[in-house]
Specification:
β7 and β8 form a beta hairpin. The chain has helices spanning 5-8, 13-17, 29-34, 39-42, 44-49, 55-69, 88-101, 151-174, 180-187, 199-206, 216-233, 251-261, 276-287, 293-309, 321-330, 335-344, 353-370, 372-375, 391-398; strands at residues 9-11, 77-81, 124-129, 139-141, 146-148, 192-197, 210-211, 214-215, 237-243, 268-271, 288-291. It is α/β, with parallel strands linked by helices. The two termini are 40 Å apart.
Length: 401
C-alpha cells in the first residue's frame, strides 16, 4: 500500500498558513531592477536558494557569462522562448543578479557547473521589461531627475548612469536610433549584458509615436539591428531578449520582429527555460520544503502497474515508461492535474498562466493540509478530483484573471 502524501510531503510553512502573498508567484523584472521586489526575488542569495536549476537556466548562465568572462566562446545573441513556470522572467532575474554580484552569491554552484565562467566582479548590465516602458511619457528616474524616452535611453541610463545617458541624450529626446559607434562608447570596452523582456508590447505602443516621416517602432527595429550587429562583432556584449508566443495578444508584433530580425540573428541561439519534467520540479520547489523521493518512485511503479493491468480503455501513453517518469517527477501531484492547471485552464482568456496556475496549486495544497478530515484520509497522489469545487475554487480562479 502506498503511503499517504501527508506523511511523505511537507508544504512550506507560508503555504500552510496562508501568510504567503500569492503575488510572490509572479516574478517582475522591473521591480527587481528598481530594488522594490519582494525579498525572494530582490535578494540574490534568497532568490537562488528558491530557484530550481533547470538545464535551460544552467545553459543560459554558461553561455552569457562564459562569453563575457572570456572563458568560452558563447553566443552573442540569445532569445528566450516563453515557457510556463519559472521561465524566461525568472531566468532574466538570475542573469541580473549574477551580473550585479558575480561569484559572491551563495549556492551559485547549483546553477553553474564551472564557477570560473562567472566574473569575479560585477559587470555592466541593463535589464528592461519593455512592457513597462512608456513610449509617450517616458520613464522618470527620481534619483537623478532624468526621464528616458526610448529603449536606448533607458539602456544608456542603466549601464552608465547620468554620464552614460548624456552620450545618447540627443538620440533619446529625438526618438532616433543611435548607431553602433556611440553604443561602443557607452560600453567602454567593458563586459556588458543587455536583457530585453517582451519587446512586442512596446513595439505596438511605439507605432503611435511619430518620428519625422516614420514612427518610433521603426526606430526600435533599427536599434535592435544595431545592437545585434554590435554584439556579433565583439566579445564584450551579450544581448538576451524574449518574445511572447505568436498566438498571444501581441502576436502580430512578435511575428514582425521575428521575421525582420531574422537576417541579423544568424548567431542567435534560442533557449527554452524549462522542459515539461522540469516544470514539475519548479512547482514543487515553490510549494514544498521536502518531498520523499522513495515515495515518488513507489507511486510511479504502483500506478503504472495498475494501469497496465487495467482492462478498460485508458488514454494512449499512460502505460509507457515515460509516463512512469512523469508520475515520479510530478509527485505528489498526478501529471494530469498539471495538464489541467497549466494547459487546459490556462487557455481561458485573461487567465494569467504562470501566476494563475501556481496560485491554484498553492490553494489546493493549503486546502488539503489545513482540513483535519483530509489529514486522516489516505491520499497516495493528488488528482484533479481533489480540487475543492465551490467557493474555494471560484475565489482562487477570480484572483487568477
Amino acid at each position: 500500500m502506498l503511503p499517504s502524501i501527508f506523511t511523505t510531503c511537507s508544504p512550506r510553512d507560508e503555504i500552510r498558513s496562508g501568510e504567503l502573498s500569492l503575488d510572490l508567484f509572479a516574478a517582475k523584472l522591473k521591480l527587481v531592477v528598481d530594488g522594490t521586489a519582494p525579498l525572494v526575488y530582490r535578494d540574490a542569495n534568497t532568490f537562488f536558494a528558491n530557484t530550481f536549476p533547470t538545464e535551460g537556466l544552467k545553459t543560459l548562465i554558461a553561455e552569457v557569462f562564459g562569453r563575457l568572462s572570456g572563458a568560452t566562446v558563447g553566443s552573442p545573441i540569445i532569445r528566450l522562448e516563453t515557457s510556463f513556470g519559472g521561465g524566461k522572467t525568472h531566468d532574466e532575474i538570475a542573469l541580473w543578479h549574477i551580473a550585479k554580484n558575480g561569484r559572491t552569491i551563495e549556492g551559485l554552484h547549483r546553477v553553474v557547473d564551472d564557477l570560473q565562467v562567472i566574473p569575479s566582479h560585477a559587470v555592466s548590465v541593463a535589464a528592461i521589461a519593455c512592457q513597462d516602458l512608456d513610449a509617450v511619457n517616458g520613464v522618470y528616474h527620481p534619483e537623478s531627475g532624468i526621464t528616458t524616452y526610448t529603449l536606448w535611453g533607458e539602456i544608456a541610463y542603466q549601464v552608465g548612469g547620468v554620464a552614460g545617458y548624456q552620450l545618447l541624450k540627443g538620440s533619446d529626446e529625438q526618438r532616433v536610433s543611435p548607431g553602433t559607434v556611440v553604443l561602443e562608447r557607452l560600453m567602454q570596452g567593458q563586459p556588458t549584458l543587455i536583457v530585453l523582456d517582451e519587446i512586442a508590447q512596446y513595439l505596438r505602443r511605439a507605432k503611435a509615436v511619430t518620428v519625422a516621416n516614420s514612427d518610433l517602432s521603426a526606430q526600435v527595429v533599427a536599434f535592435l539591428f544595431a545592437l545585434m550587429d554590435l554584439a556579433a562583432s565583439c566579445n564584450t556584449l551579450v544581448f538576451v531578449y524574449s518574445l511572447a508566443a505568436s498566438s498571444d495578444s501581441f502576436g502580430d508584433e512578435t511575428t514582425e520582429i521575428r521575421e525582420t530580425l531574422q537576417t541579423s540573428a544568424r548567431q542567435e541561439r534560442v533557449l527554452s527555460p524549462s522542459s515539461d519534467f522540469e516544470i514539475y520540479n519548479i512547482v514543487k520547489q515553490r510549494l514544498f520544503s521536502s518531498v520523499d523521493a522513495e515515495a515518488a518512485d513507489a507511486a510511479a511503479r504502483e500506478y503504472i502497474s495498475t494501469y497496465k493491468a487495467c482492462r478498460i480503455a485508458l488514454p494512449d501513453g499512460c502505460k509507457d515508461a515515460i509516463y512512469a517518469e512523469a508520475i515520479r517527477s510530478s509527485y505528489p501531484f498526478h501529471p494530469e492535474l498539471f495538464n489541467l492547471l497549466t494547459k487546459k485552464i490556462a487557455s481561458i482568456p485573461n487567465f494569467q498562466r504562470t501566476r494563475g496556475a501556481l496560485r491554484l496549486f498553492a490553494m489546493l495544497v493549503r486546502y488539503l493540509w489545513q482540513d483535519a478530515a483530509n489529514l486522516s484520509n489516505w491520499i497516495p497522489l493528488i488528482h484533479s478530483h481533489h480540487l475543492p469545487i465551490g467557493e474555494h475554487l471560484s475565489f482562487a480562479m477570480s484572483k487568477c484573471t
